[in-house]
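I am still learning, so would you mind making up any protein sequence you like and the C-alpha cells describing how it folds?
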Amino acid sequence: MGCGCLVALASVISPRLALFLLWLFTDRLTIAFESGWIGLAGFFFLPWTSLAYAVAFMPGPGVGGFGWFLVGFAFLVDLGSYFSSADARRRQAYA
C-alpha cells in the first residue's frame, strides 16, 4: 500500500490524522506551505482545507483550476463542521 492510499484511508477517519501522516512520512506539507505556522494553524482551525491544499499544490504553478475547486469544497466542509457543532451545542443548552 502506497503512502497516498494510507493518507486517503486516514482522511476518512480524521483530516488531522492524514495531515500528521503527511508531515511524518512525506515532505508534502513543507512544499505546500511556506511557513510552518500556516500549516499548524490550518491543522487546528481548517483541517480539511489544509489537507486539500497540500494535496492539490504542485511545485512551480501552485494550485490549479480543479485544485481550487477541491480547496473551496474542503473550506465549505470545514465551515459546515463548525456551524453544525455550534448548532448542536445550542440545542443541548436548551434541552
